[in-house]
């Protein structure tokens, strides 16, 4: 035991001296617990809702107020037609749309039943099911209240049909297949993990193996070294992207409503940013263990904060805005928009330009941080 204690003492001394790794080991678990815990333990609420109130009557305004008061919906757009609602849903600006017909108030005032149309973005089945249940419950409660008032005026009525008839329509994923939601997200996650792991050890491995000196004595410039290390991994990741997408379509029946060429182009931008992020980690790390911890610190939050598993709009503000620091957040909106919605670049542009800017900034940050000299 005395010899064992000596070895243990030696290892504790090494751990104490490597303060960067020690800090990551101690702080990383607590930060992940707080960040991911707050992001996951939130109920779905404030679902972005677009309303086309063509009736403009007191009863239609009361119905809309019920949706807002429930806490499940938040009216973010007031439009005139269903076509405008579909355009907003294509962009991802809203997740649900309520269309109240022009004769809604007149029919209810005469004791007739009036239909309303409720469109739901079905790309996320969990959120869609919550929106469906909430909308049906709210409409039934409003119908019962109206029916009670009608019975008070005419107690001998034999027609007890609910006044408000809700017609649900699920867009983009009408069968509510969870696989259609997760597969596009898994494509992005697999590429993100692979890109980070491929490049996170690129520079730090050279430093630990002592081969960095060979690069230092050459006339190669910093940006040339970064680009030379990046491009081979782009080719490898592109091949894996093709394999993953083909497997998803052939084995799991993943739909492909949009342009494959557009997806390949935007995936290339995403890969450059992800690989650049891995090289940035490699630049600021002194050991491969440290690089691994930093890679894990990016991958684990990306699973939660990017919207892969849980809706982002229900996260606390710190978790919500932290998601914008992850390239996967933008890529998930892009890949789901292409695969499930079939939208083009004009709808995806709000997500494309931040992802492209992220890729450029990360690459140049890697060049600036890298010092072609021994420390």
Describe the overall structure.
The protein is an alpha/beta fold and 375 residues long. It has helices at 2-17, 19-40, 58-69, 82-91, 104-109, 125-153, 178-199, 202-209, 212-216, 222-252, 260-284, 288-305, 317-322, 327-341, 345-369, and strands at 47-53, 73-78, 96-100, 114-121, 164-171. The relative contact order is 0.12. It has 2 domains: 47-171, abc type-2 transporter like fold; 177-369, no CATH class. Helix 2 (19-40) runs parallel beside helix 12 (288-305), helix 7 runs antiparallel to helix 12 and helix 7 (178-199) packs antiparallel against helix 14. The longest helix is centred in the middle third of the chain and has 31 residues, at 222-252. The two termini are 39 Å apart. Helix content is 67%, strand content 9%. It is elongated, with a radius of gyration of 27 Å. The chain contains 15 helices and 5 strands. It has a 5-stranded mixed beta sheet with strand order 2-1-3-4-5, sandwiched between helices.
Topology summary:
Layout: H1 2-17, H2 19-40, E1 47-53, H3 58-69, E2 73-78, H4 82-91, E3 96-100, H5 104-109, E4 114-121, H6 125-153, E5 164-171, H7 178-199, H8 202-209, H9 212-216, H10 222-252, H11 260-284, H12 288-305, H13 317-322, H14 327-341, H15 345-369
Parallel strand pairs: 1-2, 1-3, 4-5
Antiparallel strand pairs: 3-4
Helix pairs in contact: 2-12, 7-10, 7-11, 7-12, 7-14, 8-11, 10-11, 11-12, 11-14, 11-15, 14-15
H/E element order:
HHEHEHEHEHEHHHHHHHHH
Low-confidence stretches: none
What structural class results from the helix and strand content?
alpha/beta
Give the amount of beta strand, in percent. 5-15%
Radius of gyration equals 27 Å
Q: Determine the mean pLDDT.
A: 80
For the record, the count of structural domains works out to 2
Number of strands: 5
| Strand line-up across the major sheet | 2-1-3-4-5
Helix content: 55-70%
Q: Largest beta sheet, briefly?
A: 5 strands, mixed
């Amino acid at each position: 035991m005395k010899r064992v204690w000596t070895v243990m003492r030696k290892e504790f001394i090494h751990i104490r001296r490597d303060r960067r790794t020690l800090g990551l080991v101690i702080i990383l678990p607590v930060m992940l617990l707080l960040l991911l815990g707050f992001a996951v333990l939130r109920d779905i609420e404030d679902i972005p809702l677009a309303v086309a109130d063509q009736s403009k009557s007191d009863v239609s305004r009361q119905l809309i107020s019920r949706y807002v008061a429930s806490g499940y919906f938040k009216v973010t757009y007031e439009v005139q037609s269903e076509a405008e609602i579909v355009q907003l849903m294509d962009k991802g600006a809203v997740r649900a749309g309520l269309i109240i017909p022009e004769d809604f108030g007149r029919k209810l005032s005469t004791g007739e039943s009036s239909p309303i149309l409720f469109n739901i973005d079905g790309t996320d089945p969990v959120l869609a099911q919550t929106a469906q249940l909430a909308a049906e419950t709210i409409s039934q409660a409003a119908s019962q209240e109206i029916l009670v008032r009608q019975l008070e005026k005419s107690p001998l009525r034999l027609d007890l049909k609910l006044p408000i008839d809700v017609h649900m329509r699920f867009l983009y994923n009408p069968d509510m297949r969870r696989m259609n939601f997760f597969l596009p997200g898994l494509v992005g996650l697999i590429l993100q993990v692979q890109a980070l792991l491929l490049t996170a050890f690129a520079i730090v491995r050279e430093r630990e193996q002592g081969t960095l000196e060979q690069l230092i004595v050459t006339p190669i410039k910093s940006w040339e070294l970064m680009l030379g290390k990046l491009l081979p991994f782009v080719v490898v990741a592109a091949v894996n992207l093709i394999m993953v997408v083909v497997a998803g379509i052939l084995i799991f029946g993943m739909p492909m409503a949009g342009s494959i060429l557009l997806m390949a182009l935007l995936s290339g931008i995403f890969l450059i940013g992800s690989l650049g992020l891995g090289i940035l980690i490699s630049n600021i790390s002194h050991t491969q263990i440290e690089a691994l911890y930093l890679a894990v610190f990016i991958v684990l939050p990306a699973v939660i904060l990017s919207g892969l598993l849980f809706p982002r709009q229900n996260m606390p503000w710190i978790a919500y805005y932290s998601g914008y620091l992850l390239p996967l957040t933008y890529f998930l909106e892009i890949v789901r928009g292409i695969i499930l919605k079939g939208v083009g670049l004009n709808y995806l542009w709000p997500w494309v330009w931040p992802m492209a800017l992220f890729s450029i900034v990360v690459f140049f940050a890697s060049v600036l941080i890298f010092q072609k000299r021994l420390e």
